[in-house]
Specification:
Blueprint (H helix, E strand, L loop, with lengths): L4 E3 L4 H4 L5 E3 L5 H6 L7 E4 L8 E2 L4 E4 L4 H6 L5 H8 L4 H6 L2 H5 L6 H4 L41 H7 L3 E6 L2 E6 H4 L18 E7 L8 E6 L10 E10 L2 E10 L6 E2 L1 H7 L6 H8 L15 H17 L4
Parallel strand pairs: 1-3, 2-3
Antiparallel strand pairs: 4-5, 5-8, 6-7, 6-8, 9-10, 10-11, 11-12
Length: 319
């Protein structure tokens, strides 16, 4: 790790407009600094800022510095969010990691994290060896000739499924952005991963009220039972009335360069019986635009099966 200056701004205003790198839980930043993937000269410890609180009075509002473990355990948090958080990491990391930091975490692509290798996200124009190299863990949706790295966050998938927004505060004031619009697919500029402007800070996550999201879940398929990133995951919420799907929200993780909302699957579920056959027919649409690589074509089978598993789990007792 290279030398850096550490300061602690006393207020949000003091932090805004800074050219430094924000530090909250540090569970991603410190790792990348140790690997020399990130080499900030100035780090701002923002843990003292008043960006805490969980409010479930009308929808869900979460301060950006709330820890993942506290959110998962909070009464009134939708099950899909709580489960995504509990499946995200070890208890130690969930106790340290902030929700804002989780949404900003970088990809776990091994080429990105190895500074001896080329990587267009880390060094634009240097190439993407994952396209023809070891790519079993990589994306099949939202990829480009420049990058095929998956997005790492579990809870971001749940938030995208529920139309969550984030409040951003910067030198020019506040703005609110849908999380699905905040993330950027790589295209020809994979180094541009999100819509965070210079000096801006995530201050709050806002999830609209959705009463039937009480019937929701998050299913994560991975190589081992704990402390592992997703090969494939599905966040679902379903409104079933008299055995018919009235509405649904579905998003996928582990397969996209960003958390991937599956609007075609949702549309195919609406008005259909809440049966395994209907679920399978809808879930098949999830991979219509997929572009598999040499080692990850299995995700084209795994993703629909994961969606069906999640739908069956969340509708048990209502079919």
């Amino acid at each position: 790790m290279r030398p850096f200056e550490l300061t602690a701004p006393a207020s949000v205003g003091d932090a805004l407009g800074s050219t430094g790198t924000f530090l909250a839980g540090g569970t991603t930043l410190v790792d990348l600094m140790k690997l020399d993937v990130l080499t900030p000269r100035h780090v701002l410890d923002i843990n003292g800022l008043p960006l805490h609180g969980i409010d479930t009075a009308e929808g869900l509002r979460i301060g950006a510095l709330e820890r993942m473990a506290d959110i998962a355990a909070h009464p009134g948090v939708y099950p899909v969010i709580s489960r995504a958080l509990l499946l995200s990491a070890s208890q130690q990391l969930r106790t340290m990691a902030s929700i804002g930091g989780n949404l900003m975490q970088r990809t776990r692509c091994t080429y990105f994290r190895d500074v001896s290798m080329p990587c267009n996200r880390r060094d634009p124009g240097s190439g993407c060896p994952a396209i023809s190299g070891a790519n079993r863990m990589h994306a099949v949706l939202g990829t480009s000739e420049s990058c095929v790295a998956t997005h790492a966050s579990d809870v971001a998938v749940a938030f995208v499924a529920l139309d969550a927004e984030i409040r951003l505060t910067g030198p020019d004031g506040e703005r609110t952005v849908k999380l699905a619009d905040f993330y950027r697919t790589p295209g020809g500029t994979p180094e541009v991963e999100h819509d965070l402007r210079p000096g801006e800070l995530i201050t709050e996550v806002i999830v609209p009220r959705l009463d039937w999201a009480a019937r929701s879940t998050y299913v994560k398929v991975r190589d081992r039972q704990s402390y592992e990133f997703a090969l494939c995951s599905a966040a679902v919420a379903v409104d079933v009335r008299d055995g018919i799907v009235a509405d649904a929200r579905v998003a996928a993780g582990g397969v996209g360069t960003v958390p991937w909302r599956l609007s075609a699957v949702e549309a195919a579920l609406r008005g259909k019986p809440a049966t395994e056959e209907s679920f399978a027919a809808a879930a098949a649409l999830a991979v219509e635009d997929a572009q598999p690589l040499t080692e990850n074509a299995f995700k084209l089978t795994l993703l629909p099966r994961t969606i069906v598993r999640a739908l069956l789990e969340v509708t048990e007792g209502s079919r």
